[in-house]
Amino acid sequence: MKPSRTLSVLLAAAWLLAMPALAAAQETPPEVDELTGLKIAPGWELVRNNCVTCHSARQFLQQKGTRETWRSVIKWMQDRGGLWPLPAETEAAILDYLEAHHGPGREYRRAPIPANLMPPNPYASAARREYEEKLRQGAGPKPPP
User: Fold this and answer.
1) pLDDT in tens, 115-133
2) Same-domain pairing of 56 and 95
3) Is residue 39 in a domain?
């Protein structure tokens, strides 16, 4: 064999041998805290110390949201749930963590069911029942895609 061909074969073999290790390194999920279920990543301690002190992490581990969604949840908890004021850098680090590990993604929950496909609401007002009936007949505004 020519030296350049031998080198090519050796490089190809080295590449094939290295591929499984590279793939495994890229697919390794982050470590998870056994107590809370939080992914151990930058900011997880702040989430644990500020969020899990009042409620279980299970309350938000299944949720997904944009940074603004999570910010509004924090503000709601501060206004109504007794969450203390957070320093700006702490809130930013918590939002970074939630955005990175609980942001919208491919596994986001399903879209809302259109109103015209929902069963009748037994608690609806007369105006709401009229609106829902119009939707069933196709006369109301179209639901978002």
Assistant:
1) 677 777 677 778 777 877 8
2) yes
3) no
